[in-house]
Amino acid sequence: MASTITLEETNPDTADFPETFIPGEKKILGLEMQVETPENVLLSYQLAGPSQRYVAYLIDFLIRTIMLIAIFMFFIAPMMGLLMPGAMLGLFFVIMFLNTWGYYTISETFFKGKSIGKHVCGLRVIREGGYPITFWPSLLRNLARSADSIILYGVGITSMLMTQRFQRLGDLVAGTVVIQERSLTLPRKPIILNKIKPLDKNDIGSFLPRDEVLSLIDEFIGRRHVLTYERGHALAAQMAQRLAKRLHYSGDEKKVSQYPMAFLASVYKTFSFGQIEEEQELLDEYKRRSDSQGDIYEET
Amino acid sequence: MKKHKFIHQRRPQWKKFEQFLRQVSSRSLSKLPADKISTFSQLLREISHDLATIRSRGWGHELTSYLNDLVARGHNLFYSAPPTNFARFYRYLAADFPRLFRANIGYFLIASLLFFLPMGVSWCVVQNKPELASRVIPEEYLSQFDNMYGEEGGLNSDTENTTEGNTDSEESEDSETDSFGDQRATMAGFYINHNVGIALKCFALGVLLGLGTVYTLLFNGIFLGAVSGYIISQGNGDRFLSFVISHGSFELTAIAVAGGAGLMLGNAIIHPGQRTRFQSLQVRGLEAVQIAGGAAAMLVVAAMIEAFWSPADIPNIVKYSVGSGLWLIVFLYLTFAGLQSDRRLPSQHSLSNSPQQGDQHR
Questions:
Q1: Are strands A123-127 and A176-180 parallel, antiparallel or unpaired?
Q2: A residues 205-234 closer than 8 Å to B (CB)
């Protein structure tokens, strides 16, 4: 999303950066699935692709096999020697049946859409509306597995590649999707900008960059390790030059061209933290006032 | 408001919600005290609002996805379905399954036709010309059937599993004196694993435009008919019929029921009506799987009868009368069970997840 913006596409007269997030826009290809909640908020889920699901399947398969062997060796076989060998064998058949037809349904129903393999791979089955899966849809999608598994899951994989949400036949019938669960981590708030000095007020004009721009710089600096040094520099240089122009930056020209990343960081620091002291005062005042009225946030 | 101030201000709420999520996911939401639930719901809405704010201001992908995941998890918990319990299971078997079955009886009739008609035809043909049996049934099965249903071959115990017919007499004596029902418990498990598996597969293959179901029904119909015809033509008719009549009631009907459910799936794709094909598949699929589940339950009953009652050493006349009684029970169950609760309010259809189901019962 925001990180894929290229500066070339912008029209300098109208906007700093283009709007890329348009809610409800139909995506042609992508791993995002969007759902509107009853709170009227668009949620986006990260869909799981065939390869991830295949790994989860392999793990589940391994667990199922080991489970069957273990039950037979440590429970059925010793008991067969002691009493009722026939009944024990019958029980084993029933366990085998449950293992074949019930493993996924039972685990998905009781562990909120996760089998063990899915849990390991960080996947979860949900219904298309974003709701958790219940017994009948789960049973349906897992019974249909026998249709999907024809020719080594050839039918299922074909179906996954032909649908936008990577659904196999079972998912299509039951109205479910498999999503990736991401870990909850609040982005680290301020990047360590101690070494960076804000721009001198005398060097810049009155232009104020928009919030989106500052957020973009924030994320860019936070994720700079993802890129190689040269590539990062090349990208930062474009943005730095553009920004310097808008700001009518009259300071050290060398700083913009040779250390674009540092320049961006100082722009960021100038506009994000410049007013922080003033804001803090306002906030304190607001708090003092709301404390007397009993703030709901304090109660909860 | 600046991004960092916003984060700074809202972060305590987010952390609190995270903690809630961790707490609740180990237990059920309904087990929390009431005030906690209301806090949870308030937090969920607040954070939904935060997410919308952040999106509209374009405050960065990372922050958005963090809040998005928070809301998504909360959403998942908050709108989770009530847990299933035994009362529901009983209600399903006593009312919901037969009712759904009757609402979609057309598919069952077609499946019956696809199953029983070829069965009758191949039965008649093979009974009149037993030499044709080998066209359908492999030779080694034929000799096995001769052993099983022949004069000296005991139907007791595990003959169907093991091909060694010679040791049968000894084993059957053992099983009767030593531990009655022990060998048969093996067969019960085997039948459950084998027969229910076939029925469920028959249903599931309906996703392939119903072709898989039609094939399974035709194949099993022809095969079973040929087997019956062959065994009767060999002069073992009385032993065979007294064996199959009891569990046949549940077993054969259940196969047709499962087949009908499979045809529902196929037809939902072929004739979606006013829905899109996928929508139609989802709505009808949810009904179909509930019918198939009922068929599976019937097959479990059939497996018990087949294992413990059918091979028992009981005069044939008793078996015939009990068998007919079972056919009557199946008929009555599918025709009348849950009929009274049809008059209840549609809102009490606890299991029907889609409004369309409720419509059909009225």
A1: antiparallel
A2: 211-212, 214-216, 218-219, 222
